[in-house]
Design a protein that fits this description.
The first copy, chain A, is 67% helix and 0% strand. Chain A is mainly alpha-helical. The N and C termini of chain A lie far apart (47 Å). Chain A binds a DNA duplex through α1, α2 and α3.
Chain lengths: 215, 215
DNA sequence: ACAATAAACGAACGGTCGTACTATTATCTA
DNA sequence: TAGATAATAGTACGACCGTTCGTTTATTGT
């Protein structure tokens, strides 16, 4: 019935099953803790059976990261493209980013975990993380450029600075949520985002462009 | 000759030696990777000899985190208290935070590593991280309050929001430095900090309060 | 200098790690 | 449905894990 995935062979099915558990585990315990044995036990496979799907632990780690990114795009980024071009879309990218963990049934973000785990450890995993993160960064900068084009953002808005600060807000939000268990974490993040966008608005525009009512 | 540490006994000396290596290692490879064997080899001790200093791996991890925080306070936070009360002190706390890694000869920040590694894993390590981070957060909020008292910050400045965003800036800076290897990371962080403080200034004051010349 | 004590060592433990092999079973294709 | 192929299981490996224990060496206070 479904069109695109013509034939999910048995191998692809179990591989997806493994990656489901792997993404879950990597978010909480990190990518180094992605051990073959634990994952095999969790999926009901034998160690060697699971291992055969990837060929090495590093390949498993990379596949897990790729899968996490794929899910993020699926549940967060791509849906945000439905929002109208400009500030509203940027806001939806941000909001979806804030919510994507719970939306995809995860307990922690594998992308953030991979980021801090490998950012200072050269190798294939770091390269993969960097590539994914740079792509995401680039998409955000593109979003800023669009907001400039629509006239909402000032012409001299600094897209790279915007992306820099946006990631900081997300990072801090995760910390407030997970470490401090602060229920107001999302609200703080949104307030920070509003301040960030406000400082990039074209001067002639009123504030009412933002998606939330001015109270 | 030196006054305070009356008698650094042999045990305390080697313990400090171990923690030196441990802090270094934990920053880059994380606290789970703080294995007894690697650390023993690195310090020239035997596994059992090193182990005796802590009694368990978890105690070693906690001691390493404590040591990292102690160093941070020593080289970054406490020196910032020399700055005059208010915005200038806040700015120095921030600047020292940005520079403390290189100042203490580390390659990566163990505190950030511990934060993302344990923020979603309940246990003694998470408790320790939370305690340290909450203390730091509290100190920053106190700094904001002082800046309000001096009249530099608006009376309704949100100290908690300030601390929230400040940590985000630091996080993003680490990512830009380590993952993206962006030489402009510190400059971006400072720009973000300036924007953050600017939005908290008392309305009657001019901008010239900030420490950096207006170009 | 000597006894009391602290510090470090060496060997061994049961486990788990990643990976390599071969054998067995399930799935696909003709 | 038979033969080819893909998927999984089983077993074993050397290495390292955290931890324990008894022994030996170094430091300390007297």
């Amino acid at each position: 019935m479904s069109a695109l995935p013509l034939k999910p062979s048995k191998g692809e099915e179990t591989r997806a099953l493994i990656l489901e558990a792997a993404v879950q585990h990597a978010g909480v315990h990190g990518f180094d803790a992605l051990t073959i044995g634990v994952l095999a036990e969790q999926t009901g496979l034998s160690k060697s059976g699971l291992f055969a799907h990837f060929g090495s632990k590093e390949e498993l780690q990379i596949a897990t990261l790729d899968e996490a990114v794929r899910r993020y795009n699926e549940v967060a980024f791509i849906p945000a493209l439905k929002a109208p071009r400009g500030l509203r879309r940027l806001a939806m990218v941000f909001d979806n980013w804030l919510q994507w963990i719970e939306r995809s049934g995860l307990k922690a973000c594998p992308m953030i975990a991979a980021n801090t785990e490998f950012d200072d450890r050269p190798g294939p995993m770091r390269d993969a993380v960097m590539q994914h993160m740079q792509r995401l960064n680039h998409e955000i900068m593109r979003g800023v450029q669009i907001a400039i084009d629509t006239g909402e953002f000032a012409k001299d808005a600094d897209a790279e600075q915007f992306a820099f600060e946006l990631f900081g807000i997300i990072s801090s939000c995760y910390r407030s949520r997970n470490l401090f268990q602060d229920p107001a974490a999302n609200a703080r993040a949104r307030k920070a985002f509003d301040r960030l966008t406000a400082s990039n608005l074209a001067r002639t525009e009123p504030e009412s462009i933002t998606r939330r009512t001015p109270k």
